[in-house]
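Notebook, student rotation project (T.W.).
Task set for the rotation: take a protein with a known small-molecule partner, predict the structure of the complex, and write up what can be learned from the model alone. Partner molecule chosen: magnesium ion. Sequence and SMILES entered below by T.W., checked by me.
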Amino acid sequence: MKPSVLAAQAAFVLFVIGAWEYGDAVGLFDPKILPPPSQVAVALKGLLQSASFLGDAADTIVRVIAAFLIGAPIALATGFVMGENLDVGRSLSPIFNLVLAVPQSIFLPIFVLVFGLGFTEKLIFGITHVFFVVAINAAAAVREVPHGQVLLARSFGAGRFKIYRSIYMPAMAPQVMTGLRLGIIFDIIGILLAEMYASRSGLGVLLLRWGESYAVDKLMAATVLISLVTILINELMRVFEHRIGRWRQAMA
Amino acid sequence: MAPAIPVVIEARGLGKIFSVERAPIVALQDISFAVPEGRFVSLVGPSGCGKSTLLQMLAGLVPSTTGEVLVDGAVVRRPIPEKISVMFQDATLLPWKRIAENIEFPLEIAGVPAAERHARAAGMLALVGLSEFAERYPHELSGGMRQRIAIARGLAPNPRILLMDEPFGALDEQTRIKMGHELLRIWAKTKKTIFFITHSLTEALFLSDIVLVMSHRPGRIVGVIDAALPRPRTYDIIGSAEFGAVRNRIWKLISQDDTEAGETGMASL
Amino acid sequence: MSVRRLIVIVIALGVWEAVRRFNLVGPLLLASPSEIVAALVKSWPDYLVALRFTVSEIVIALAFAWALGIGAGVVAGVRPFFGAVSGPLLSSLFAVPLITWYPLFMVWFGIGMASKIAYAVVSGFFPIAINTMNGVRGVDPHYFVFGRAIGCSRLQVVLRILLPMAMPSIASGLRIGTALVVIGVIVAEMLASLGGVGYQISYYQSVYQTGHVYLGILFALACALAANWGLSVIERRFTHWRELQIGER
Ligand SMILES: Nc1ncnc2c1ncn2[C@@H]1O[C@H](COP(=O)(O)OP(=O)(O)OP(=O)(O)O)[C@@H](O)[C@H]1O
Ligand SMILES: [Mg+2]
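Predicted structure of the complex:
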């Protein structure tokens, strides 16, 4: 990226933060509604030292990771089968497209009715968020495999394992990574939404509680923290995705 | 002595410098020429020598770094759609408009009343021989037909000058030859002044009264060839000795320039 | 609709009803079609009020999301530097779980309609802006030059040439963005509000009236489907020429 573009992006972010702080200082904003960044930073520091906040954060993180660890492998397996086996793919993909087109979040109350308020409900709601996007991308990844190269390798007598390792994996990796990246983002959204809707613990509960009780500095600190962490996860996985993609281009 | 033909386009010491990432590129340098009324002038030169930039400067679409363009003796600072129409390699037709509506579009922008627009569009369609396609959409026409529609659209506001940037560059050779004949027929009928960019020396020579030859980086005019072959021209003329001789002269100008560019390129490596 | 499809639907409804009648699934978890109809008969005036509330929020939010998204997308698409600066920022922001910002919107805009509208506008904005930017960037630059050569003002170039040229891409952005606006309004109502379809759903869920919950979800789905249908009509109307082009190839 050009240095001038990076500079402009940094300048824009700094400008927003500066204008926000300045606006509070001159009384343009009501600090009860929009506390200045300095106050939010203090609140953030407080949160990071508070055992109860860290406990709720840990609950959320456990849910997110559990849903991902269960959902992603099942989704990958389903996606690969769908991609490999055209009949399965053709019969399943309308269902997948329908599910993706219909907003899952609207069904959250049914999850609560069926599974109650505890860990299971959040886990399953999270898994449904991970599952479809990962599976669809995995199925698409299978279609990226260069079949000409597979035939060629087979004609040289390459074994099944070798073909999988040297042709299938590099060809499929970038698209699979895209799916996993979107999967974890959707997972985070799903878990937080489930917590905000009805839960006994987790960051989502805190956010809604703080919102209703106008604890704005803590609310703002937690919201910004969550946003920054997701952006970071997304960007890191994107960098990784590009790496894999580049490696593949270099191979070709 | 015959009365002098008035000059419609005049370039006076035109220069253009692009700065890319703070490194200046001298695209055009000291370009001067005059196009007399009603003439067909072609511009040839190596790829990237600045032909399109020059054309857009003539149209008032790109500001010059030095020098100026005069049309009818007045300095050009912005587009003058009532005097100049511009055409490109792609027809740039609006795909959601019917053919007749496409031809009317510049008139609509110019504020011409609807009844007159329809009449003029019909006239232009008749001129390019595509009247039966008035109600069709651009994608229903072939590439050559689309370029004829672009010509009709360019002529609809009744400008005095047509600036054409490789208008037939994307067409196959047979269509291209036919389009050349077609353009000459329309030119003879409408008596416009045409400034025509092409990569094909044959096409330039076949169509033009004057061929301007440009050099590469910085783009300069290195030759003004008088292509005074008899008109009306037919395809046979391309095989004639006279045609071949003039084309060789143009080729020498261009290739000479190429070796120079090559040598300086080597030296800088 | 074909007869076969009708038969499939009738059978599905029958099985659904049977599952509840024979109590294979508890009354809290699943409402049978007849129970949903009963809920409708009993509470339809309430639902109508809620629907009107939700639809007005959706309409206002759509107006803002479309205007802001297309506006920002055009500016980012036309000004290369602005696009280079804002493009990556936009796609980074796209990853933010916007739902976590809803409590802040509650603080800023109150618990009434305004906070739902604000949340829905923000969630619908990004896909519209990004698709518009990509669409405008994808237009052959000769179209800009052509527009200026025939004497269009900048605004005319944008409105008469660029936007229609970019319409296929904008339309798909609008489709995604509109869906997000509709869901955004309803989910925000579910979390905290004083009225609307989402409020009905979460209220009846909290008092375990399963039939009413399912009825509310059906209303919510109807909103999403109606918006999607309306959009596909608009899309077909404005990108008609594109489909013809593709069909031809
Ligand atoms: N907006 C611009 N910014 C920077 N450089 C430019 C710009 N437009 C053109 N150039 C450069 O100026 C030179 C001339 O470009 P131009 O398009 O006029 O050439 P051309 O003779 O029409 O080429 P071709 O025969 O390929 O159409 C090229 O080297 C090009 O890279
Ligand atoms: Mg050019």
